[in-house]
Design brief:
The chain is an alpha/beta fold. It has helices at 6-26, 43-59, 74-85, 105-111, 123-130, 139-150, 170-178, 198-202, 254-257, 272-287, and strands at 2-3, 33-39, 62-68, 92-95, 159-163, 187-191, 207-210, 228-231, 235-238, 246-249, 263-264. Strands 1-11-8-7-5-6 form a six-stranded parallel sheet.
């Protein structure tokens, strides 16, 4: 069993991006510029945006956080998005989710110029990805693909089972791994919360990707020997004996599943570190006009 070390891979990619930014600087080119919009004071969102700011600094990007109170109206927020769409210095920007209840998240996503949509949520980018055109791919699926690629895990002809059908993880990764080329050429089965007898499917998986958000749902008897297991789930649970009083668990019961696997991601430290790196990669592509020209 080998651990898929997302943190190590993320550090490698950050070093590669930083070298590219240095090369751009050396030629007197424009430094990539990423902006994050943060509405309200959600603790998790504050943490995520802080991590993104730090990552931008590590690779030499220009970054900025625009903070608004959760009393901002939908119209005001859409106006701020339009300003960023029209700002030639901003290469890419994200609107940190979730948003307050009175704001329509889908309307916000669709208001972002697809050329600056480095989260990869706009229907134009989702559509381009689905038919195999250059696109900004959303962070978690891109992170999973990067893990498979960097560890040279064979995918051609493999049966990949994806648990979870969300628009930001399950659906896109199922699509990406079914496409021609590497990492791809998988036969993909997409299961979800309404799939009966999930165990029948998971036992047939050469590559099992779990993104249901249910702590320790996958047990050893659900995984075939030698499978590659990628755990996207992360749930915070109380742990009275620990210093913080809580711990993070994945969707896979790691201690009992790991010995059966050829490769497995830890939680935390697996897919998570690569999500921010995917955002950096998309921002660099935006700055170099690689997707839309």
């Amino acid at each position: 069993m080998e651990l898929l070390d997302g943190k190590r891979i993320a550090d490698e990619i950050k070093a590669e991006i930083a070298a590219k930014v240095e090369a751009i600087k050396g030629k007197g080119g424009k430094i990539p510029h990423l902006v994050a919009i943060l509405v309200g004071h959600d603790g998790a969102s504050e943490t995520y945006v802080g991590h993104k700011e730090k990552a931008c600094a590590q690779v030499g990007f220009k970054s900025q956080v625009l903070r608004f109170e959760d009393s901002i109206t939908e119209t005001q927020l859409l106006h701020e998005i339009q300003k960023l769409n029209n700002d030639p210095d901003v290469d890419g920007f994200i609107v940190q989710m979730p948003l307050p209840k009175h704001i329509d998240e889908q309307k916000v996503i669709e208001a972002i110029d697809p050329r600056k949509d480095v989260d990869g949520f706009h229907p134009v980018n989702v559509g381009r990805m689905n038919i195999g055109l250059p696109a900004y791919v959303s962070a978690t699926p891109e992170g999973i693909v990067e893990l498979l690629r960097r560890y040279k895990i064979p995918t051609e002809g493999k049966h990949c089972v994806v648990l979870g059908r969300s628009n930001i993880v399950g659906r896109p990764i199922a699509n990406l791994l079914s496409q021609k080329g590497y990492p791809g050429d998988c036969t993909v089965t997409l299961c979800h919360s309404r799939t009966p007898n999930i165990k029948e499917y998971t036992l047939g998986a050469d590559i099992l990707i779990v993104a249901l958000g249910k702590a320790e749902l996958i047990t050893a008897d659900m995984v075939k020997p030698g499978a590659v297991v990628i755990d996207v789930g992360i749930t915070r649970v109380e742990a009275p004996g620990t210093k913080s009083g809580w711990k993070l668990l994945g969707d896979v019961k790691f201690d009992e599943v790991a010995p059966k696997c050829s490769y497995i991601t830890p939680v935390p430290g697996g897919v998570g570190p690569l999500t921010i790196v995917s955002l950096l990669k998309n921002t660099l592509k935006a700055a170099k006009r690689e997707v839309y020209g």
